Amino acid sequence: MTVRYSSTFLKISNVVWLCCLANFINSADRVIMPIAIIQMAEYFKWTLHEQGMILSAFSVGFLSSMVIGGSAAKKYGGKFVLSLSVILWSMSTLFTPIFANYFYITIFLRILLGVGEGLGLPTIFHIFSHVVSQDERSTAFGYLIALGSIGQTVSALACPHLPWSFMFNFFGLLGIVWVFVWVISYKEYRDPINGDEEEFVQPPKFIGHSVHWREFIRHWPLWAIYIAHFSMNWSNYIIMQWLPTYLSRYLGANETEIMYTAFPYISNSLLGIGSGYLADKLIRQHWSIISVRRLMTFIGLVIPGLFLLIFSSAYNVTLSVIYISLSMGFSACNSAGHLCNHAEVAPNHAGITFAISNTLATIPGILAGPLTAELVIKSGGRWFPVFTIAGVMNIVGAVIYVSQSSATQII
User: Fold this and answer.
1) What confidence score (pLDDT) does residue 196 get?
2) Measuring CA to CA, how many Å separate 174 from each of 146, 161, 409?
3) Which terminus of the chain has a lower count of CB atoms within 10 Å, N or C?
């Protein structure tokens, strides 16, 4: 097999940065609605349950397309599938302000946004497994997660001070521009022996062309990744969907204080980059890969879980934002932990294993809207049960990952 990519990070930076920029747009699009819905709900007279339906509709589409994304990238190539993905989510974002007064069309567009973004991340994982070498993987994934957090930060800072329709239009158009740049800039290289297969910068130990679906669910190291991802997303979806509403309606935050919802994403992006560099440095210093993955996942789940428990007892806006920022910041360590682990245990099928993992990890996104609303209503307006469950979930996920994970190729 001829390898056309140098393992030097500078050589692959164009591909990595374009994928990171796609995740920036992806994440910004995803956060617009949880902030804009405060204004939209008042204007369109949506109830709390209707708001929950709109917020969770994204996860329905995300869940439905995830595995398709992983398989499609392997069959049709990362370039085509990622282009299709960004077109879908950008068009749905552009159309949202146009049809916002139609409740069920709005839900449909949120589902379509989820479908597009569900195709996107597994495809990026597929691309990274091919073009990023093992000792640079944590850094690449760190930047990927960080750019996503920066996109969320931009939305959180800008949305409260702009007409809610402007951000939908801006990021929708930005996605369309991205597609043109991507199509022109990225060239896929194919194995000269098997032209249907994309080449690897570091060929895996063995390459299997046909794997039975049972292989993706029968190995405990894969389930360790799936469970860790599920636990991480349980708390992340609650924070992403409900933090602005929580600060505004429970703690009485004003319009300026709602801007504080940007700080968790800033801390997430900074620690995401830092943890990536640290993890790769430890690997170059001859730490075993599995030790690094377990350390980063343990930090990325346990510490955020503890801060969520503390956050649930805070009763002023400033302290609450500090605690949730620390929680989200340390959560970024997962980018150098279990999120990198796909490319090690299943390098030929990283897009598919990530798709399965993210499909399972999207279930909290579907439940976070209606379940949170129900828990808060049944608890007489108290949010304590919501954040306690999320914190405990993180700690359980960390214990399972540390005890069951592996960095050895299994499929």
Assistant:
1) 52
2) 19, 20, 38
3) N
Q: What is the CA 292 to chain-centroid distance, rounded?
A: 21
- 311-351 pLDDT per residue, tens: 988 888 999 999 999 999 999 999 999 999 998 898 888 88
In the DSSP assignment, the letter for residue 382 is -
The Cα–Cα gap between 118 and 359 comes to 8
- Per DSSP, helices labelled H in 45-163 are 48-76, 78-95, 103-131, 137-158
198: three-class secondary structure by DSSP: strand
Distances (CA, A) of 310 to 88, 323, 389: 39, 7, 12
Alpha-carbon dihedral angle through residues 251, 252, 258, 263, given to the nearest 10 degrees: -30
pTM for the full model?
Answer: 0.74
Is there a contact between 125 and 19 (Cβ–Cβ < 8 Å)?
A: no
Q: Per-residue b/e over 369-395, b at no fewer than 16 CB within 10 Å?
A: bbbbbeebeeeeeebeebbebbbebbb
Q: What are φ and ψ of residue 101, in 5° steps?
A: -80, -5
> What's the CA angle centered on 230, arms 32 and 401, to 5 degrees?
140
Half-sphere exposure of 1 (CA within 13 A, CB side): 19
Task: Supply the DSSP symbol for 199.
Answer: P
DSSP 159: G
Rounded mean pLDDT, 351-372 = 84
Q: Residue 188 contacts by C-beta under 8 Å, 6 or more apart in sequence?
A: 77, 78, 79, 198
Instruction: State the DSSP string of 10-58.
Output: HHHHHHHHHHHHHHHHHHHHHHHHHHHHHHHHHHHT--HHHHHHHHHHH
Q: Which residues of 262-276 are buried (b: 16+ CB within 10 A; e: fewer)?
A: bbbbbbbbebbbbbb
205 DSSP 8-state letter: S
pLDDT in tens, 148-175: 888 888 887 888 788 888 989 999 999 9
Q: What is the set of domains in the chain, with CATH numbers?
A: 14-184+217-404 (1.20.1250.20)
Distance (Å, whole) CA 199 – CA 201: 7
